[in-house]
Design brief:
Blueprint (H helix, E strand, L loop, with lengths): L3 H7 L33 E7 L2 E6 L5 E5 L6 E6 L2 E2 L22 E14 L5 E14 L2 E3 L1 E7 L2 E6 L5 H11 L9 E7 L5 E8 H8 L10 E6 L5 E5 L4 E5 L5 E5 L4 E4 L11 E4 L3 E6 L5 E5 L10 E6 L5 E8 L2 E7 L2 E6 L11 E7 L7 E8 L4 E4 L2 E6 L7 E7 H5 L2
Antiparallel strand pairs: 1-29, 2-3, 3-6, 4-5, 4-6, 6-7, 7-8, 9-10, 10-11, 11-12, 13-14, 14-15, 15-16, 17-18, 19-20, 20-21, 21-22, 23-24, 24-25, 25-26, 27-28, 28-29
Protein name: ScyD/ScyE family protein
Organism: Ornithinimicrobium cryptoxanthini
Keywords: Signal
Length: about 425
């Protein structure tokens, strides 16, 4: 018989990312990413066959590290909007054991330990240096799991996403008796202990912080996304589910930097509202980084209905005051400062409701609503990092086995 606690948790488990499901693409194997004159502005693929790559970072020596959300796994649960579906025997309904035509409102998620971090050597070649991290496949290639990786010395900091009420994490641990799922919605510290050994420990629990503080109080939701070493010590993290920019101390203590404001957008026609009716959308912060002036800059994906030109780069000063720094962007998933310039990735130039995952890398102009395009026609781009005169962008971010890292020559754009 199901326990009362399990039934209470079940109502919180029907989860979804802020993105829709996407189609797969095929790619080739890894490649050398040392600089060469052949990029021609079109970009050069330096890694491929990645499982839903999200954010990435460059080590001081030029090696790249990419967070891969993974492909889910064998643990499967049937969900409805109300939570997990149980059969007549009071056990979880087995995936594939029902007629989807009779229950179109049901869907399946699959959990496993397929999340990872891939290292792309500056000398060429790629291999996964961290494996066995939790991953949730929501179907159609849509997944959550490792979202970003930051490097400092001999350790990596890895954010693990969730995209749901923190209580759903506890339910997944209970349903499948797998403590690995307790790492969802956390920051994990990875230390390298020799050539083939790593030590992983929990550094910060963002689900616990969301449960206790809930800085954006509309509902409980947590989805740790980007992490970066803060120039003033500790780490900056964005929680795209909790709509919060957070600071982690060197000991892993979590504090709030701020909650960017959302906005209003015209309701899409399929909602059946009168034409022109405005509806609110959530901010959904995706990345935060301290700029050369000491302020923190934050990018927004924006929540439903994901308005075109609705993403803003917010500047947070040392007093916590937020001001618009740039506008006119769409569904921004990452940003980074390099040599005094700010670069951002747009996941979908035409907005996620268009179901067109053609995105771009842009150089953001202060106070402007139009921006310099560095690379366009990118399929589902997500993360960006810069090393020397090259920008590296993850693409195919929602494609298990079909993701890539593409390099672009920024020096070429300086000469244009």
């Amino acid at each position: 018989m199901r326990s009362a606690s399990r039934r209470a948790l079940a109502g919180a488990v029907a989860v979804g990312l802020t993105m829709t499901a996407f189609t797969s693409i095929a790619t080739a194997g890894g490649r050398d990413h040392r600089p060469d004159p052949g990029d021609g502005g079109k970009g050069k693929v330096v890694a491929s066959e990645l499982n839903s790559p999200r954010h990435l970072t460059a080590a001081p020596n030029g090696d790249l590290y990419v967070a891969e959300a993974g492909t889910g796994g064998e643990d499967c649960v049937v969900l409805s909007e109300a939570g997990p579906i149980f059969g007549d025997d009071e056990n979880l309904l087995l995936c594939g054991s029902y007629d989807p035509l009779e229950h179109p409102e049901w869907f399946e998620i699959r959990l496993g330990e397929t999340g990872s971090v891939t290292k792309i050597s500056r000398k060429g070649g790629q291999h996964r240096v961290v494996t066995g991290l939790p991953s949730v496949d929501l179907g159609g290639g849509e997944s959550t799991g490792p979202s970003d990786v930051a490097i400092k010395g001999n350790k990596l900091m890895v954010t693990i996403g969730l995209g749901a009420d923190p209580a759903s994490r506890d339910l997944m641990v209970e349903l499948f008796d797998n403590e690995t799922y307790a790492d969802l919605a956390t920051v994990q510290e990875v230390r390298f202990k020799g050539k083939n050994r790593v030590k992983i420990r929990e550094f910060a629990d963002l689900a616990q912080f969301e449960t206790e503080s809930n800085p954006h109080p509309d509902n409980l939701d947590t989805n740790p996304n980007a992490i970066v070493a803060d120039k003033k010590g500790g780490w900056l993290v964005t929680d795209a589910g909790g709509n919060a920019v957070l600071k982690l101390s060197k000991r892993g203590n979590v504090s709030l930097v701020g909650v960017p404001p959302g906005g209003m957008a015209e309701a899409p026609p399929f909602l059946g509202l009168p034409p022109g009716t405005p509806i609110p959308f959530e901010p959904v912060p995706t990345a935060a980084e301290r700029g050369p002036d000491g302020a923190i800059y934050v990018s927004l994906l924006t929540g439903f209905p994901f308005p075109v030109d609705g993403s803003i780069i917010w500047r947070i000063d040392r007093h916590g005051n937020m001001t618009e720094w740039a506008t006119g962007l769409t569904n921004v998933t990452d940003l980074t400062w390099a040599k005094g310039k700010l670069y951002a990735v747009q996941l979908s130039n035409n907005g996620l409701l268009s179901e067109d995952l053609t995105g771009s890398l842009v150089q953001v102009r202060k106070g402007k609503s139009t921006h310099k395009v560095i690379a366009d026609d990118l399929f589902a781009p997500y993360g960006v990092t810069v090393h020397k005169d090259y920008a590296y962008v993850t693409t195919g971010a929602v494609v298990p086995g079909g993701g890539e890292v593409v390099r672009f020559d920024l020096d070429r754009h300086k000469r244009r």
